[in-house]
Automatic annotation (TrEMBL):
PANTHER family in the record: UREASE ACCESSORY PROTEIN D (PTHR33643:SF1)
Pfam family, one: UreD
Keywords: Chaperone, Cytoplasm, Nickel insertion
Function description: Required for maturation of urease via the functional incorporation of the urease nickel metallocenter.
Protein name: Urease accessory protein UreD
Subunit-level organization: UreD, UreF and UreG form a complex that acts as a GTP-hydrolysis-dependent molecular chaperone, activating the urease apoprotein by helping to assemble the nickel containing metallocenter of UreC. The UreE protein probably delivers the nickel.
Organism, as annotated: Dictyobacter aurantiacus
The keyword Oxidoreductase belongs to this UniProt entry's keyword annotation: no
Location of the protein in the cell: Cytoplasm
Similarity-based family: Belongs to the UreD family.
Length: 236
């Protein structure tokens, strides 16, 4: 059993809550890309707060389409994921630079993403991203360099020992090397403090990311659950 709820907190604030019950399975995606519209100068940033909970031996696959911040957008996102013993998670976030066809390359004002993953009441991943392209150029080598798109893909299963994760890191790292073309896209894989790993990518084109994410998703699902991944039909 799983429950999904959402609501408006007031102003431009949205709350999403997902609870996956013991031994249950849920796959969530979005109907299309999330478009972040221009904010009024006098208004606070638009904000989304997402709470995801997976009970013992449950599995959540949360695989939304990309965030696309339009020119003048100001957006803050907080995502907190709580995993119980034996719980599994596949969760990715992909961020576009704007509406490229309209010449809006990094024309937004603020994009702030905060993600925390907690396993059995202990943090295993904390990620804070704050981008302000009008104040700090994202083409800096300390930020995105020559790349325009980026993504993070968290894969977790609570209770697996460190040796299993190191083995999976090695296998997915070999796949990352196969999929990396430095002039177009770069992939990397690293283990978390426990119970999982994270895959990251920087790309010049969005078209390279979905196929790569599916390759990693399928490989990890085979190793962790002895089956093929079942992506939403729209990204097959």
């Amino acid at each position: 059993m799983h429950n999904i709820s959402g609501g408006v907190l007031g102003g431009d604030q949205l709350a999403v809550e997902v609870n996956v019950g013991p031994g249950a399975y849920a796959q969530l995606t979005s109907t299309s890309a999330t478009r972040l519209y221009r904010s009024l100068p006098e208004a606070p940033p638009a904000r989304q707060i997402t709470q995801l909970q997976v009970a013992a031996n449950g599995l959540l696959e949360y695989v939304p389409d990309a965030l696309i911040p339009f020119a003048g957008a100001r957006y803050q996102q907080q995502t907190r994921i709580q995993l119980a013993s034996g719980a599994g998670l596949f969760y990715w976030e992909t961020v576009a630079p704007g509406r490229i066809a309209r010449g809006e390359l990094f024309a937004y004002d603020l994009l702030q993403l905060q993600t925390e993953i907690v396993a059995i009441d202990k943090p295993i991943a904390i990620e804070h991203i704050k981008l302000e392209p009008q104040r700090h150029k994202l083409s800096s080598l300390a930020r995105l360099g020559p790349y325009h798109y980026f993504c993070s893909f968290y894969i977790c299963k609570v209770g697996l020992d460190a040796a299993r994760w190191l083995q999976l890191e090695e296998e997915l790292g070999a796949l990352a090397n196969q999929l990396t073309y430095p002039d177009e896209i770069c992939w990397g894989v690293s283990t978390l403090t426990a119970h999982g790993l994270v895959i990251r990518a920087l790309s010049k084109q969005h078209t390279h990311l979905p196929a790569g994410l599916l390759r990693f998703w399928n490989a990890a699902t085979q190793r962790l659950y002895n089956r093929e991944a079942h992506p939403p039909r729209k990204i097959n």
